[in-house]
Amino acid sequence: MLVTSCAVGPDFLHPAAPEITRYTREPLTHTSSTDVASGQRQGFVPGRDIPEQWWTLFRSPQLNALIDRALHNNQTLQSALASLRAAKEAVYAQEGKFFPLAQANFNPTRQRTSAALTPVPANGAQVFNLVTAQLEVAYTFDVWGLNRRTVESLEALSDVQRFQAEAAYLSLTANLVVAVITEASLRGQIEAIEQIIAINEKMLETIRRQFETGFANRNDLALQEAALAQARATLPPLRKALAQARDLIAALAGTFPTEGPRGTFRLAELHLPPALPVSLPSQLVEQRPDVRAAEEQLHSASAQIGVTTANLLPSFTINANGGYINTGLPHLLAPQNLFWILAGNATQTVFDGGTLLHQLQGAKDTYQAAAWTYAGTVVGAVQNVADSLHAIHNDADALKAARDFQRAAKVSFDLAQQQMQTGNANILILLTAQQTYLQASLQVVQASAARLSDTAALFQALGGGWWNREELPEQRIVNVGTGEADIPAERPGEVRSIWSALWGIFRSDTSP
Fold first, then answer.
1. Which residues contact 431 (CB under 8 A, 6 or more apart)?
2. Considering only CA atoms, which of 73, 54, 52, 72 is closest in space to residue 63?
3. The model's pTM
4. Which listed CATH number (1.10.10.10, 1.20.1600.10, 3.30.110.10, 3.30.1490.100) goes with 44-95+146-270+286-313+354-510?
5. Span 239-293, pLDDT tens digits
6. Phi-psi category of 24—alpha, beta or left, where left has phi over 0 and alpha has psi -120 to 50?
7. Which of the residues 109, 270, 333, 509 has an alpha carbon 20 to 30 A from that of 299?
């Protein structure tokens, strides 16, 4: 127990958190606002924690229900959870090597020996039965911590898979929110164009009457007909995008397009969170699943240095083999039939052409690669947050400008319609005002959707609040033949072998 508590190789140290205190050069406190849906001011609150179900801040019961279904049905998330279970089982399997290997063997044989040889049985028979019942026990002392470092590496890889599952969870929820916002945005754009089409149809009727009475020429009528056709031509691409967005939502929810959500989403039903939590950069490295996964990859690489170092040192093994052997099954367990063997073994590699040394150097280089990957992941995480903050800040200004543009374009369009109806305006002036108003209306819808989408992107960039959740969603087992997934699986860690449980108690008492 004393020698097993030691392990060669470096002990892993958690990387230091970045020393920066904010994500942007200039401090951001709040955004601008305007008088339109999703146009209210948002404030940035440094250090505030992110709620577990951050999507509820959009205050859409329909969105909440959709995400709840997706968390139980999404195939990608369930695959990540199954991979997590497999990674944990690999740890438990390796922990079993801390205990002796015991194997029972029963071997009945019938054989004949050559007359030229001394008969094997004591009775001198050449043809005889031989029955052997034995117990074999082998144990390798973990003097240098080879198995301990291997378990440490596998535990780190298990944590990698855990954070990949958290990343799949976060990606699913964020993608669903963005997909819902995209659907709502497309519906808003379609509604804006349909309003323009309705106005064009009325204007076409007016110009047709004027043409019939001689107050408008054929060119004016043709231009208005072309404008109406152009407005109608913008609808099919938007309807196609809307149908594809609905299909994406169904796929993310783990269902087929025909089984997708029956309800619809509109921008007016999605509310912009007024206060946005902004974790400190020192907290970000503990909250981002990708950063934590990169850290555990670094941890695993560190443990592998210990594994390769231990391979350079002697290994010590003891073997015990005992049992009974007799020429017949009756009286097999008689004392005179007892046999046993006890052996020890010490092995040291003397020459292998430098294989072990190169493996050690390779492990060190792998650690360096993992360290650089971790550093790059941290930089990328900070960049994601900074990009989201800049996007939210500028989205508010873009929406304000689009709303001002729409307001002015509406006044110009209304005046052009009045003048056209009274015969005091040229058709080209009306068409220009109409196109300007349509463009402004679409920009308002798109800018409103951008504010919602970038708000969701900020929650994703900050880690999504997984640390406030007690556990991952229930894992399920799918029947490949039927495609059904009705049987809940045991969560990782609930069922472990007795040896793994014993090792957990032993390790808690002997770990340095």
1. 223, 224, 227
2. 54
3. 0.86
4. 1.20.1600.10
5. 999 999 999 999 999 999 988 777 899 999 999 999 999 999 999 999 999 999 9
6. beta
7. 509
